[in-house]
Design goal:
The protein is α+β, with helices and mostly antiparallel strands. The chain folds into 2 domains: 1-65; 68-163, 3-Layer(aba) Sandwich (Glutaredoxin), CATH 3.40.30.10. 60% of the residues lie in helices and 14% in strands. It contains 4 helices and 4 strands. The chain has helices at residues 2-65, 87-100, 118-126, 153-163, and strands spanning 77-82, 109-114, 133-137, 143-148. It has a 4-stranded mixed β-sheet. Helix 2 links the parallel strand 1 (77-82) and strand 2. Helix 2 crosses helix 4. The longest helix is centred in the N-terminal third of the chain and has 64 residues, at 2-65. It is elongated. 19% of the residues are buried.
Length: 164
């Protein structure tokens, strides 16, 4: 009988010690979990902040590029009549941007009249042109040249230089 009660006491002591250590481990795991959650939250906030900033900058750039009121602001302006779903328009836009890299900031202005917007469609209609077209305005906003169709950046550089 003595042996049986001693065995019971030893098992009870082991169980109590195990429970005590599990509680300590549980507290430690809770702290680690909280720190891990805090770290992951900080990383997520940083990523979202940077992404949000980049998105705002992109939207501001798009709005500026589509601002037709910039024509006649004292800087010669190239306006592309553009349909974003048209592959030829996107190719012309790429060539135009490539040609504009050869000019300093403030020498030429580039504006896109998106015909999928009411303002862009009205502008194209007012000038009697369709997409895949570049309209070249002098610094006073007077239309000097109309280029329809696909053009190379080399050809565009020459035409843009003549606009200055």
């Amino acid at each position: 009988m003595k042996r049986n009660s001693k065995t019971k006491r030893t098992a009870a002591n082991k169980k109590q010690k195990a429970t005590g250590s599990n509680a300590a481990e549980s507290v430690e795991t809770g702290r680690r979990g909280a720190l891990r959650l805090l770290r992951n939250g900080a990383i997520a906030a940083s990523v979202l902040g940077v992404s949000g900033f980049a998105l705002v900058r992109y939207i501001e750039g798009e709005m500026h590029e589509h601002d037709l009121s910039r024509i006649g602001n004292g800087i010669p302006t190239i306006v592309q009549i553009h349909d974003p779903q048209c592959p030829m328009c996107r190719a012309l836009q790429k060539e135009t941007r490539s040609a504009l890299k050869n000019f300093g900031e403030g020498e030429l202005d580039y504006v896109v009249a998106d015909i999928r917007t009411a303002e862009g469609q009205a502008f194209a209609t007012e000038h009697g042109v369709q997409h895949v077209t570049l309209l070249l305005f002098n610094k006073n906003g007077v239309l000097k040249n109309v280029l329809q169709g696909q053009r190379s950046s080399r050809e565009l550089r020459t035409v843009f230089q003549n606009l200055l």
